[in-house]
Amino acid sequence: MSLDTASPSESQTSLARRPPYFFREEYSALIVRGNFMTLAARPVHVDEGEWLAHQVVEQYRLLESMIAIIRVVDEKTGQSICNPEVCPTMSASGHTYTWLDNNKRPIKIPACQYIQLVQKWILGKISDPNLFPTDTSLPVIPPFQSSTAEWLGKSSGFPANFEGDIKSIYRQMMRCYAHLYHGHWLDPFWNLNAHKELNTCFIHFVNVGKLFNLIGDKEMEPMQPLIDLWLVKGLLPAPEQAAGADTTPTTATAPAPAA
Ligand SMILES: [Zn+2]
Q1: Can you list the domains of the chain with their CATH numbers?
Q2: Domain of life, per the record (predicted)?
Q3: Which has the higher per-residue pLDDT, 43 or 252?
Q4: Is 182 annotated as a binding residue?
Q5: 111-168 pLDDT per residue, tens
Q6: Which stretches does DSSP call E strand in 16-124?
Q7: Is position 87 annotated in a ligand binding site?
């Protein structure tokens, strides 16, 4: 396939008329062939809580490898690619995400700082043995006294707030992806020929998020045009399919970050 018709060197005038590169079919390719459903589907004998904990940690690892690409420091300026000058706010497609200050007031901070805070926050969550228990043989201590309450992951030792927390983690990871695309698709992902890796990590993230209902449509809105392209290609489950996964996975190649 030739890239001539929509090369990222085209003029600003034509940019104004066409959607951003990453929302075009010709740039939506992946580094992995095959079905992402098989990577996301929970093995029959694995508890849903354990599977989602595994998925969230894996998704974070992939996102982290993509974030590392925008953190590379330019030798000439001494600044990272995503820095407070080029990205003064955590923005994506008209959305500006705010952080809460010590008085719980929303504040706008540079994207690089926002992403750093998100990473610190997520790492704190996934390394918290109360939230992500590593030894499931330990007795479960519910946060409130109730013998009848049920929650996701209860049977394998996850606390009642587990589902809410992994959804919050997912929401923040989504914002990071939205910034990677809207702020940095051309530089550095296209320039380094790493845009397919970015697509591959992101489609896997979206697929798991949709399949296990970890993220809502509203939160995916800044990236919806790309998600729609993948839906049309059958690379993501149609909305009616995304109501739960209980199939036996077959082998699939896991997406790998750019070398
Ligand atoms: Zn940025």
Answers
A1: 24-135+152-237 (1.20.140.30)
A2: Eukaryota
A3: 43
A4: no
A5: 999 999 999 999 999 998 888 876 655 445 555 555 577 888 888 888 899 999 999 9
A6: 90-92, 95-97, 99-100, 106-107
A7: yes
